[in-house]
Design goal:
Elements (H helix, E strand, L loop, with lengths): L2 H10 L1 H14 L17 H31 L18
């Protein structure tokens, strides 16, 4: 069997392969919804998420200067400013 024949066969199967990959991805188990605990019983879920997000932002702000100092010489760049933002996802978190 020639290499061209194998190549044409493989190319003809690409849509099926992509479909199988997508099906596998969609069928994967997802993480359960997060529960935000250890706060007053009257604190809403949204407030708990904001408290946790604020805590994560503060941790990032503490760690980033050391990381910048470590990697700037290797990358040959200068960092003048750093922004810490929460990424939006298509699931709304």
């Amino acid at each position: 069997m020639s290499l061209d024949t194998i190549r044409v066969f493989a190319i003809s199967k690409l849509p099926w392969i992509r479909q199988q990959q997508q099906k596998k991805l969609l069928d994967q188990a997802r993480e359960s919804a997060r529960e935000y605990l250890h706060r007053g019983p009257r604190t809403s879920g949204a407030a708990r998420r904001e408290i946790l997000a604020r805590w994560y932002r503060e941790l990032v702000k503490v760690e980033v200067p050391d990381l910048i100092a470590k990697w700037t010489p290797f990358l040959g760049t200068n960092v003048n400013q750093v922004f810490v933002q929460q990424m939006k996802t298509k699931w709304g978190s």
